[in-house]
Amino acid sequence: MRLVVVGAAGRMGRMLVKAVAETEGCRLVGAIAKPGSEALGHDAGLIAGTGLLEVDITDDPLPVFAQADGVLDFTTPSATTGFAALAAQARIVHVIGTTGLQDPDFAKLEAAARHARIVQSGNMSLGVNLLAGLVRRAAAALGEDFDIEILEMHHRQKVDAPSGTALLLGEAAAEGRKISLKDHSVRVRDGHTGPRRAGDIGFATLRGGTVVGEHNVIFAGAGERLELGHRAEDRGIFARGAVKAALWAFDRKPGYYTMADVLGMSEG
Hints:
Blueprint: E1 2-6, H1 11-22, E2 27-32, H2 44-48, E3 57-58, H3 61-66, E4 70-73, H4 77-90, E5 93-96, H5 103-112, E6 117-120, H6 126-142, E7 147-154, H7 164-177, H8 181-184, E8 185-186, E9 201-207, E10 213-221, E11 224-232, H9 236-249, E12 255-257, H10 259-262
Parallel strand pairs: 1-2, 1-4, 2-3, 4-5, 5-6, 6-12, 7-9, 8-9
Antiparallel strand pairs: 7-10, 10-11
Helix pairs in contact: 1-9, 4-5, 6-7
């Protein structure tokens, strides 16, 4: 499978280049960086520390997408929606690990999925997606007698909050309760807030140091508490998951998929 990495000069981009180079069944055919990047014109493999791949980093995605079977994308919401439109035009796979996406962005991705094979997830790791399945089942089983709180911590450079993974877990909890996360999400508590409203799903965000990612979902009941959690110790898990998603989607029909589909855990 011929793959392109966008944002190839960034931390996750370099991880993705390395994962492609190390995975049987695919090869890197393109690497994109933003205009003005110091990495432009340099070999993507050398930038990623994985050895010469004879793929120079460029800022022009059009000719690169035209010769590819799939794109791996952990960039920004505005960049991702643009790449999705190009992936739809080229009718290829677009794996999206970008976080911070909002409703208008998702609408654009849904439109692109009419022609592209979109695989989008707030987290590409196997462990997190297994955790989401457990959260969904626990939320359904325990009911509103147990309050749900989601605590996440990431490195000091992360720019969006709550994390995409925290929101993924919140959606899983809401699905288990058969409620809308949008209507029951509590992102901020400050000052005199009054008692906690039954059925709400709370989020707490911590930032500091070099933490790759820690997530805990707390079910707090009367006299007992259940905690489900995941710790990411290596960003490579996200890159390897993205490559796995691309290979899975290679021969699928156009559509909008998630990692639950890739792992055979979808309930839809």
